């Protein structure tokens, strides 16, 4: 940066002297680009937010939820008012075997209708019809007089206009009796929305738990590499001490070779630990979908091991199981699916019934030579009746009912299996959390003792009362104790997150704004 500063300053001076200012986009990067950049040092909360915004499967579940909402909206469309407009022109000249006389007719008709279905299944239709017609019939009987030369008698043409206003009502009383099937379909569509949302929440918690788990795996791998690096430093320091003592004649050359061999072995272990840390970070990257360019400059803001505190409380498996039955998203989703399946059974039973509808209609209208005569609407007709429709075997309906009943029973079996799984998960989570807490206490105490033991032995080495072999063994013991403590810290955090997750709680608490953040396109 120091080399480029003079040239940039000189360029700015030239622009100012010429009266031209640098463009705005050259001074400040676009806001969208700054927002899309991944933070250079990622905390665990940053990783969780990025995963929630960029997970493809989470996007898929969002689309499924939106589709369920659209299907529910379409199902409610059965109650929408519908308008129809029909125009027809008929010109009839071709005689048929049913026509006694040659005739010619023309008509032009315009129909308009409004249909609306009530929630009790009643179909109400209001219609208006206007017709203009012309009818001409030729009779094949001979006539006398001036027209007797092979001509036929004809009737005067019949021209007229017709208007009609009608109100029709149809009420199902057996299949879809009083709208039961329609209401069941709408309820099933609403339950499908809830089930889709529950599946989305369940996978969201799973994703958070996976990111949380791999985060602490990466933490443990990085800390272990740091432990090996400190171990290499101790080996280097010991090697320098041995070289001075060998040069002064106070130590044999065998101890010097042992120190060199230990240093070489620990450098190999350092390479392996750094590779393991990078592999853990790569697994974390797979869940974050960070681009290669951003990943190369990304670091992690891991907490210090001494900042991690032990949780307190009564970790009862039974209490966790009761909480899971109330709070877990997968159990709630199965409950909604079971209710939806029962609604589908109700619909299938309604469809199994024959169709029986009561119908009634009343109309007012008139016809005349012109529209003025037809507007009187002084003629009335009405009708009542019923429509009965049934299949002789009803194979399709019976099969649909059996399928709906089997689907409900399958969900019952899934619920029983899931409850057994949840009970086992709660027992394991409680046991593992208690063991993790005790492991941290034990490994921390062992690390302190190993560090104290090594310090005392190093003091004896300076006094000439110890050997290189003993120091190397004690360093290895301290290295193993530190690694055990760090691994116990990672397992503790993972066990605590799993304890929360089996109860239906979010593994890591995030704000509502982070939880409902919009999804981003995958780079």
How would you portray this structure in words?
- Strand 3 and strand 4 form a beta hairpin.
- The longest helix has 69 residues, at 180-248.
- Helix 12 packs antiparallel against helix 13 (468-502).
- 59% of the residues lie in helices and 17% in strands.
- Mean pLDDT is 82; it is low at 1-38, 143-152 and 512-523.
- It has a six-stranded antiparallel β-sheet with strand order 2-3-4-5-7-8.
- The protein has 14 helices and eight strands.
- The protein has 523 residues and is α+β, with helices and mostly antiparallel strands.
- The chain starts with a helix and ends in an 8-residue tail after the last helix.
Main traits of this protein?
523 residues, two-stranded parallel ribbon, 17% strand, 8 strands, 14 helices, alpha+beta, disordered C terminus, disordered N terminus, single chain, elongated
Identify low-pLDDT runs: 1-38, 143-152, 512-523
Q: What is the count of β-strands?
A: 8
Distance, first to last CA = 29 Å
N-to-C series of helices and strands: HHHEHHEEEEHHHEHHEHEHHH
Q: Reading side by side through the largest sheet, how are the strands ordered? A: 2-3-4-5-7-8
The helix-and-strand class reads alpha+beta
Helix fraction, binned, reads 55-70%
Helix count, DSSP H or I runs of 4 or more residues: 14
Q: Mind summarizing the main beta sheet?
A: 6 strands, antiparallel
Q: What's the rounded overall pLDDT mean?
A: 82
Quick one: overall form? Answer: elongated
| Rg value | 43 Å
Beta-strand fraction estimate: 15-25%
